[in-house]
Amino acid sequence: MSARWERRDIVLRTNATGHQLTAPVFWCHGRNERPLAYVQANVHGAELQGNAAILALFDMLEKDPPRGSLILVPRVNPIGANQQVGDYVAGVYDFHSGQNFNRGYLYLTGPSRASSAPYVDVDAFAAVHRDATLSEIKDGFHEALRAALHAIRDSGVTWGLDARLEFALAVQELAVEADIVLDLHTGDRAPRFIYAPEGAVAATRAFGIPFVLEVPPRFAGALDEAAFVPWNDLSEAFKRVGRSDVRRSVDGFTVELGSMNTFSMAQGVEDAKRIASALKYYGVLDGEPDDPAYRIAACSVADYQSIAAPAGGLVDPVVTPGSPVRQGDLVARIVDPSRCALPPRSADSIIEVRAPEDGVILLFHAFSSIPKGVRLLSMMTKVKSL
Amino acid sequence: MSARWERRDIVLRTNATGHQLTAPVFWCHGRNERPLAYVQANVHGAELQGNAAILALFDMLEKDPPRGSLILVPRVNPIGANQQVGDYVAGVYDFHSGQNFNRGYLYLTGPSRASSAPYVDVDAFAAVHRDATLSEIKDGFHEALRAALHAIRDSGVTWGLDARLEFALAVQELAVEADIVLDLHTGDRAPRFIYAPEGAVAATRAFGIPFVLEVPPRFAGALDEAAFVPWNDLSEAFKRVGRSDVRRSVDGFTVELGSMNTFSMAQGVEDAKRIASALKYYGVLDGEPDDPAYRIAACSVADYQSIAAPAGGLVDPVVTPGSPVRQGDLVARIVDPSRCALPPRSADSIIEVRAPEDGVILLFHAFSSIPKGVRLLSMMTKVKSL
Amino acid sequence: MSARWERRDIVLRTNATGHQLTAPVFWCHGRNERPLAYVQANVHGAELQGNAAILALFDMLEKDPPRGSLILVPRVNPIGANQQVGDYVAGVYDFHSGQNFNRGYLYLTGPSRASSAPYVDVDAFAAVHRDATLSEIKDGFHEALRAALHAIRDSGVTWGLDARLEFALAVQELAVEADIVLDLHTGDRAPRFIYAPEGAVAATRAFGIPFVLEVPPRFAGALDEAAFVPWNDLSEAFKRVGRSDVRRSVDGFTVELGSMNTFSMAQGVEDAKRIASALKYYGVLDGEPDDPAYRIAACSVADYQSIAAPAGGLVDPVVTPGSPVRQGDLVARIVDPSRCALPPRSADSIIEVRAPEDGVILLFHAFSSIPKGVRLLSMMTKVKSL
Amino acid sequence: MSARWERRDIVLRTNATGHQLTAPVFWCHGRNERPLAYVQANVHGAELQGNAAILALFDMLEKDPPRGSLILVPRVNPIGANQQVGDYVAGVYDFHSGQNFNRGYLYLTGPSRASSAPYVDVDAFAAVHRDATLSEIKDGFHEALRAALHAIRDSGVTWGLDARLEFALAVQELAVEADIVLDLHTGDRAPRFIYAPEGAVAATRAFGIPFVLEVPPRFAGALDEAAFVPWNDLSEAFKRVGRSDVRRSVDGFTVELGSMNTFSMAQGVEDAKRIASALKYYGVLDGEPDDPAYRIAACSVADYQSIAAPAGGLVDPVVTPGSPVRQGDLVARIVDPSRCALPPRSADSIIEVRAPEDGVILLFHAFSSIPKGVRLLSMMTKVKSL
Hints:
homotetramer, alpha+beta, 27% helix, 8 helices, globular, ten-stranded mixed β-sheet
């Protein structure tokens, strides 16, 4: 029996000439409504590869209908995707508000910058549901989160709905339903890596992605956090009333599928397999997840550190993203020809950049010429095996 | 005896071709080093009028040397001022980081997003200085704030100094010395108004500016807050150890000198008079501050509310910025010609926008065509007389 | 009997997420199909007021149905209108190609940069139609121009249709039908003025707009030229075969309705009256055109000169746009505070700009801070009365 | 004996805060002043690799002093290099004027859009110099070109020097002295290729670059044309007065060193060798040029054709830039997920793009997501061996 599909187009922005910038939402109903996965791609305008992964998932799901269900949203951010100035897309920050498109989501169990509307008080919820079943708790909390989103939308009736809020609501009204949320991004120039909730080791391993950044359950505005932190907060609240059986039942991952400005349908098939393996772990798809044969390198996001360019100039990377380095290793050269005196020597134009600690160089800036003080590279430190 | 002047150029950014973008700092030493005023203009690239005010202050100070001293910095943000795309400057958000140039300052007595370096613990300071004189406390706290800035700069040695931090430090290393800090901005399309610390009524009145937004002592990243909140925190800490005589001795104001993209040397002379009156209040200049004859309308920033555009379209303001309105009054029309059916009628293109509350319309968006959800206007509500 | 209206939405661009950016075309069929006026607004994204004029024309045409017909296109350029970065719209140059949106039209009777497709050979046409009636000539030439547009569209089949060409075709396939073409723009900061074909004095006067720039019949890429130059070329070709009775029967005007970034529905009613007066002259509307009581100042576009800013800095205009000046008059100050030495004097920051010739200052740059060498202002010289 | 070096910094733009954006000019005086090579890099802001080539030339020239002389200008365009919005540089079109930085040079022997100043009349020059020696002709023409540049600079005295003209003059006042001009660019995503003057086969081969576009002697605004077309015009003028011995003695090349946004010091050493080989051909360096063993594919720029994207979407290239293709071959896919109906199939999102002719795919757009009608790729057709 094949899956049942629905399509709905959500509005992310209405522009100054009244055109609606929409994203297509494909809802794949499998044998069961749950577990439900929410998968979106391209929230940052120049991070394209997740779209190829979703397209490959379409074909995979048509061939092997899922056990649970999926909401799939390619090209979720038509605003960012069209912020093209000259050749390239400047797709991280909203041209209208400076807002990072992945930092404006709503914290539904605590105060967030994006909204002053009331949120779900997890302690009050836990008090009321102290004796409820796990299933009642899960359903009740889903209902409470939905109600919080409704209240936020309603709060816009008097003073209007801010564009950032409208964006966040359009996404979160879908994502709030899910048991697992995957936000498909890319690094700047990077191998595949993943932001995973602390403690979700087995699920994280199922992706088979060799680099992992572990995210603590604290809300900082991103979608993965918006998905799992409320459920973590709920679990903690139940612990405070003496119930330790209420585990976090929703996970959120930011999956970085290589570099900005790369797009390959062929690689999309491989990426879809990685995602499918994780979805098997969660029971959304039938079958067993893959177990990666190789070592997975992990560190906390607190130990994921960036080097600010020590000078403005051209960037000549010395190591490939994904390479382990030792403290003091040369990792990049910043090159400014105007530093040459007479006679000019190429060596005089170079500022060497060395690793401040042992670790793994994970990411270089997307562009090979940057001002002083802009992120040159980011590296994992205090790396462990997962 | 004339004032003694010094000039020093500070570097705000070094660009990708190695050029230093600098701002000229003019230090006017009067009869006494203190009180010291720090006055900067144009931190947002399109907010120009403060430069005219500073130029007029130059002439005024040369004619009437000050009792105290002043640091004057026109064109403090050469990055923002040169973010010109087409005809206009997009000068609020840093093209490199999306950061609002007036939200990245450092909170020296608490945790801030801009830096993870340690800050001054006001309670520890109060404990140590419980029996100190007010003068010792003031000097000691100045010294502690300076030390915090040094520590933040030093924190950049290993991983490099982030461009936003470099900007903040360049400004705050000057502003931290001052007893009064004036950050000269403009509204989008607005009359003159001012953000003033809660409680600084007499000083605020001295500006003679008819609209006032009162800022509570909570840090949100702006320079005025970065200036006065640490001293407010200090005062509170001393209260906690039983001393109520340690009042906040530094004030910070954001002075909005009309609309973006206006610049008039003639008006600058008038603006300089407004500023001079406040500097007289603080004893930086000789003489008595003016006392405005007219009513000053004030509200808390918490009651300064914005209307998000209910539709994308052209903006036809109905009231002049600075006008009082009653709830339900028509304040603007959003016009989208594509809404016209057949036969087309201009009325069909119009979405009327009405005041949700009584108040004063203070500011319209700088541009007359905006997407849905972008700030159309901001208005004071719960207005009182100051 | 009321007019018969049709609406059709034309596609100007399909963006990277597949959304069509369209403009609404309102076709008002009056008592006769001809004379036919084509009126569009806002081809430059920040030039808004023409939309108000068109909306007012809607109401006027519904009240007084026209003798001829009109095609009315507000918001004709949704690409430019949405090139908003920060507060303002950068709407003159296409972010993708650097192309001025009003310089990419097709020259249908000569070679143009926009297309290498064949054009109408007016001499061949005149040879063939040497003995035709004026009506046959007009119909035949309309048909020939249409065929040229078709050929250009067809030329895109093999290698694809360039985005600039697609834009030009969408507009010109409508405009080519018209007897009079009005392209509603604004100046940067300017009074109302008009670009009018050389020799069209009576029609030009009918607008009642006090400043006129006379355009010679030479194609430089703008829509007004694209409209009238082919018919001028035709007239010249007929002269070469000995017929002087074939006058240019199509006129094109670029009407500048004040300053960028202003929009007023009330002013739109006044602008519609100006346009209606001209349409009466052309017989599109019933009635007599107004005859302005005041002097109209005119010069050739060849005598419309610009001053490049002699320094980078803030702009303090000394005269109001539309003011007559004498050679040597102070017209603006460029102000750069970094020029101040010690003690700083405001006078040292100023570079005075004086009129190089007698004339009328017509336009200042839209922004009050500009780099060296950018157009500071434009002025009419060798001004005459029309 | 080592070379004698001079350094001078030229001003390309003075920005709105009065900062001069300069480029460093390194003049290497070898054993003879001539032949003189002018080599610049990075006129388009995102085309970086030429800087690495120039830095490697520094080291090479210090080791082996040249027979002639060289002017070397890395980072020649600090305006374009700093037009960074978000991650990437939009460096082709001037944000202020929409002008392609490589289309605004001055045509010194004919009318150009950049200036209305008088140019050198080659026929008058040939008439006067009919009996002059070749050396007198060369010196005299150099002098005439210099005088034309002076006249253009002087023409800015009254109305000011337009920013584009200031840029062109700064470059051309240096380049006009040279016998060979190399403008180091990159393609979007491309192998190394070269724009070479028609007929300069041996010199072109000396670069050892496998793809060549032959440029006819017609001025279209680029620097290579600005360098060699006047000398070609001179040669033609002498032919018209009966002297065929006056050959074009200046060549200009645009050398495309791979893809935008790549920068490698190691590859720069290889690029410097390619350039050095050509400079040996011209006698600027000692020694014999290399003779490439492999076939060089060439076509006229008239046969260098672009495919406009047939739809907006993501770009999945099927062939590697530099690949030969046959008419009908699949060369790229445009992918728009919103095209998927239900059930969604990846195939439905794809628009296939096929080669319209036989040829070589030379270049893909720099970004993997583009609107409809934007250049998707460019290919050589009617390819021959050089």
